[in-house]
Amino acid sequence: MNVKALLLFLMLPFAASAQGFAGLGTDAEGFAVPQPNPQFSFPADHGAHPDYRIEWWYITANMTGPDGTPYGLQWTLFRSAMAPETRAGWNDPQLWMGHAAVTTPDAHFVTERLARGGIGQAGVTADPFAAWIDDWQMTGFDDARLTASGPDFAYDVNLTATGPLVFQGIDGYSVKSAAGQASYYYSQPFYELSGTLTLPDGDVPVTGTAWLDREWSSQPLGDNQTGWDWFSLSFDDGAKMMGFRLRQTDDQNFTSATWIDADGTATPYSDGAFNAAPQATTTVAGRDVPTQWQVTLPDRDVDVTVAAINPQAWMDTSVPYWEGPVTITGSHGGQGYLEMTGYE
Amino acid sequence: MTRATLHALLSHWWRNPLQLFTLLAGLALATALWSGVQAINAEASASYDAAAATLGEGQFDQLTARDGGTIPQATYVALRRAGWQVSPVVEGRLNGVRVVGLDPLTAPGGLGPITVSDGVEINTFLSGGGQVFGRAEMLDRLPDIGAQPVSAPDVAPGTVLTDIGLAQELLGRDGVITRLIVVPEQPLGRPSLAEVSPDLTRQVAQGTNDLGRLTDSFHLNLTAFGLLSFAVGIFIVNGAIGLAFEQRRPVVRTLRALGVPLRSLMILMAAELAVMALVAGAIGVALGYVIASLLLPDVAATLQGLYGQTVSGTLQLRPVWWLSGLAIALGGTALAAASAFWRLAKMPLLAGGSRRALSMAAGRTAQVQGVLAAILLICAAGLALVADGMVTGFALLGTLLIGAALALPLILDRVLALAAWLSRGIRAQWFWADTRQQLPGLSLALAALLLAMAANVGVSTMVSSFRLTFVGFLDQRLASELYVTAEDAAQADALTAYAADRVDAILPIQSADTQVRDLPTEVFGARIGPTYTDNWTFLTATDAPWQRVADGGGILINEQLARRTGLALRDTVPIMDTTFTVAGIYGDYGNPIGQAILSEDVFATLYPDVNALQFGLRLPPDSVAAFRADLTRDLGISEGAMINQAGIKQFSLDVFDRTFTVTTALNVLTLAVAGFAILMSLLTLAALRVPQLAPAWAMGMTRRSLGVVELIRAVILAVFTAAIAMPLGLALAWALLSVVNVAAFGWKLPMFLFPADYARLGLFALVAAALAALWPAWRLASTPPADLLKVFSNER
């Protein structure tokens, strides 16, 4: 194992516990721990929370090109703290990692960046909002410009928020296990997107929608949790749904969901209301990964099939996972994004 | 059947234990020298690899400051923010240890040779106390820095590796970076380097660095030495095997007559030799290990001193080296036995076991050998005219040495024939004729002696010429009595102000890295004064070269730069968009790379950001000590930052003395191998010669005088060989100095002669030959008369 991989275990506690790296998720020594009934303050809370162990700014987008081809886009900035503080210079315990990807029906481009805090190479400022690592950046919040580049792809898109922020869980306090592990979690699922993808065959103008997740915590997973399957679904009627399933070593799952009306009104659903069951798997990077799901939320009459647009959307990063755009059929039609971790 | 055949074959060795010993010892010695040298080379190359893995040198493109200085950390961040995937490195020295700081998150090779199993605790490494990785002896030399030292044997020797943040702190280089490593894979659409950071220049990875190429030549020299020793050893083995096969002809004839197929006979004999080769090879590799571990510290010191390349002073056992040692022993045996097997295969079934087959065979092949020698020597002469590179240089050495070795018996034969013709008196004529008759049996041993002596003369002439030239060069170059290194620009200013009216002259030493015709070159800015104008000598120069440099249009370049770029006097050299005319070319024997000298003022215009931190101070030699004390007291300059001229010279000469140690040890070893070859040849001949000596004894020569004659014969043959070895050695030295050196180092050294050394060497060779002949002569002198008498009664 090289040093980078070790770093990533710090960065991705969920993957770490999936590999038997138990202890990180539950050990919140010195770090602040999310408490119920959070009081958010914006724009400050769009910025970083260095006294929490991990945090991310996570954007996924479903887009179409001029010929109707569906595309997916991911832009993620992770923060991982080795200590609950910031320091100037190289000794800053805050580490940053960026993942960017573009998915087409038959190709998946992915790249990764790592940076130390404290020297200006990566960071987040709340007002005016800017999140960056190297040349990748998200500037502005309600009207944002999002850029990233890799050796074989790049994108430069504009995002415009057309709805309110949505608070996941109970007012943004999102419980992650029966034992009570939780995170602060809010989203901006109402971005309209337009911009340009640069792909090996040339530039592609795209339009679509994007979804931002903001989450921070010091103890996201329970000891017995091995990975997660996370869905962000946008239905054709304007409603949206976020749901996740945390897999446990006892073959039980912990689920959670938020129903989001077209006007942004959010309804949380606790463990058991939301269900996701694999229907078909694909061999991806030498392992079997579920790429077609039956997703149900009976309380809202949701019974849909969620299928990957490109089943090979493997994030071949230092700690690998699956992330890509999906189509929705069944009781509701639409599109969305699926993220799956811990499939080893 | 097989068992009986094997028993019959092996019985030869029981009856001739000395021959068995010769075979095993010759092979073991040959393997020892070869594998010893290989071990040294392998250790060095492992050290270079560790350095490359630690520092990414040679593998990746690098960005460095155009002015040769440091890079602001802000420039690094600006490059990253523009999309440039670069990784910062900060380097410096602390207590003589090279401290390298990396950022493991962006470095393309991570932490290089360090892995988590080495004890990386990433939290500790990246922030807070920090971790420092290195070999234990380097960690011990670091001051107490509060960081956790972790022993890591794969880190390059002389180097410790740590996080960039800690390295900046340790080295007092907050906010600056030494260089940037360019990650091979870069994202789309990033701006050009000139747009982001025009002060940086990109150096393209060369696969191997210049130092690697230079040290290659040093190792090639070692390898050549090892190969030569091996060749000498194989001569011995060839002689022993040849003799054994000749003596076993009757056994072979009998066995074949009894129905043993030639094929299985050959297989058995090959297996027998293979076993011997493996045994001797194992002994040789073990001996080689001893030789290598004795020599390695000196080799390491030489490489460090000459090229600044750090090589571990301790030897590690590497399986590949064991295997290659055994392989070379097997290969060498096969080579040595090839002709014997060939003859065995061609031998008619019932061919008799002629006792004098060896010398008769030698006589038959003399003609072929003569032709071959002539061809090789003609090739050598041709190569001497055209050789201009490493490969042709070594081809020249090879053809010269092998040609001479082949020609030696023929020349000696002619000389002995001439001596016999000139001599008067029965005894003298018998002596010369008998010597001549013995020549074929001794020729291999004498060829070994020839090669050993020639190598001795050649290599020691080269090393001594180098030393002489270098000492002269040091006197010219190190004119200042005291050299002081300031910690920073402020201390440098304080120093110049303080010293201004206390010393005769202050000579700033300031340089910047640039490229001249794509060759990495150091440009110096010199404060031109009598120190330079009076002391420097040029290989070639225009009138008043220093004046031309002072005027601003002239530039001085070193020989390396001139040879490698083809620059000549009055050619123009562009540096930083300004063109200069070459006013002089100077010899530069302490430096592998290109060098150029401008005047201080011109340099300051071209490189305004470079501040001189090193100064040469001219002052009366007897006031140096007092002035050093003043500098420490008044300016706080540490003792370690000052060095006396005498100190530098001593260091440089120490480097040479280390080189001498290595060379001398190898010389002694090759000479010893040659002496051993003579001893073994004489011993094997002794038994055969009793029938020839018995008549002389019967006619009245005492056994004692026969013994003395044997001794004299050995010495005379050694004298003749030495007489041929001397010019051969000088030719070798010429090839090394004028061809190999130029190709390897970029400079040509004047050749000096050292007659006293040669005389001493000749004496050594004679003593070695005499010592080798002593025991056989003594055995002869004490042969019981009854044995001599048996010659006349035995049926022959």
Question: Summed up, what is this model?
Answer:
Helices cover about 5% and strands about 55% of the residues of chain A.
Describe the structure.
- The complex is a heterodimer of chains A (344) and B (796).
- Chain A has two helices and 23 strands.
- Chain A is mostly beta strands.
- Chain A has one domain: AttH-like domain (AttH-like fold, Beta Barrel), CATH 2.40.370.10.
- In chain A, the strands form two sheets. In chain A, strands 1, 2, 3, 4, 5, 6, 7, 8, 9, 10, 11, 12 and 13 form a 13-stranded antiparallel beta sheet that branches.
- The radius of gyration of chain A is 19 Å and the shape is globular.
- Chain B contains 24 helices and 20 strands.
- In chain B, helix 2 (17-55) packs across helix 10 and helix 10 (262-307) packs antiparallel against helix 11.
- Chain B is elongated and about 100 Å long.
- The chains are: A mainly beta (344), B alpha+beta (796).
- Chain A binds chain B through residues 1-4, 6-7, 10, 82-83, 87, 89-93, 95, 111, 114-116, 119-121, 132, 134-135, 149-154, 198, and chain B through 73-74, 76-77, 80-83, 85, 103-106, 110-111, 114-116, 120, 122-123, 125-128, 163-166, 168, 174, 185-190.
Poorly predicted sequence stretches spanning 5 or more consecutive residues of chain B: 207-214, 352-358
The separation of the N and C termini of chain A measures 16 Å
Judging by the overall fold, what is the CATH architecture of chain A? Beta Barrel
Helices of chain B, by number, come to: 24
Identify the CATH class of chain A: Mainly Beta
Strand percentage of chain A, roughly? over 45%
The gyration radius over C-alpha positions of chain B equals: 33 Å
The 3D shape of chain B can be described as elongated
Extended strand count of chain B = 20
Q: What gap, in angstroms, lies between the N and C termini of chain B?
A: 31 Å
Q: Major sheet of chain B: size, sense and barrel closure?
A: 10 strands, mixed
Assess the beta-strand content of chain B as a share of residues.
5-15%
Alpha carbon gyration radius of chain A: 19 Å
* Biggest sheet features of chain A: 13 strands, antiparallel
Structural category of chain A is mainly beta
